[in-house]
Amino acid sequence: MENFDVAIVGGGPAGSVCAAFCAAAGLRTVLIEREKFPREKVCGDCLNPECWPILRRLGIDQRVRESSHGTLASVAFIGLRDRCIEIDLSQGENAEIAIKRSVFDALLLDRAHQLGADIRETSTLTSLQKTNGGWKLTIADASGCRAQVLVAADGRNSTVARLSGLLPHIGKERVALQTHISLPRNFGNKVVLQLLPGGYSGQAPVSEKELNLCLVGGPSRFANCKNGRSNDSRFRHASNGEQLRR
Predict the structure, then answer these.
(1) Residues 6+ apart with CB under 8 A from 39
(2) pLDDT per position as a tens digit, 112-153
(3) pTM of the model
(4) What distance in Å separates the CA atoms of residue 148 and residue 7, rounded to the nearest whole number?
(5) Which domains does the chain have, with CATH numbers?
(6) Which tens digits make up the pLDDT trace of 6-29?
């Protein structure tokens, strides 16, 4: 088994940024990711302005700006009775943008690799053992590594937490669906957050041609939508991929 200073499980933004900074600091770093990038992920695709200083430290802020994205000028909140409040967002160098996770995450993972991190995609962590010198990690293909420090950056249903007996029981109170559809004409440079009887919808342009459409609700509500039994036309339309608010 190879020995590393730091082993990071999960190649999303948190894991990739951690790997990049560790590698840049001279630490021998390995990142273990079960997927093959680029890949999409259920997400609103919006990039918080507070991310820009971190991206500048990584030296990829310009690469992000040059990638296909939508610049967001405002956010609109729509209530159950269609009352709308729209708030302007800060503009300029640190403006909020919407960018596909497939694009953004791949940029971060590539930067971690450029800085010297050992990136192991399509690798699933199967076992974890605490040792006197740190951690022993085993991968699905029977390979593995040792590391002094272990970072769990593998999300809400963390494999590291599960293998360590730390993953709490999480009920399925909400289900999230997300896709990209053609950007409706005159949609504008804004994020739309719309409250619905069974949950909410989020919409944001990720380019001049595409819109990120998310829908969050209870499991039973989605079952009704799928079977065409929902009395709520807005949920039913969204389940068919139509935009909720034009």
Answers:
(1) 101, 102, 105
(2) 999 999 999 999 999 999 999 899 999 997 788 999 999 999
(3) 0.87
(4) 8
(5) 2-45+100-163 (3.50.50.60), 70-97+172-246 (3.30.9.100)
(6) 999 999 999 999 999 999 999 999
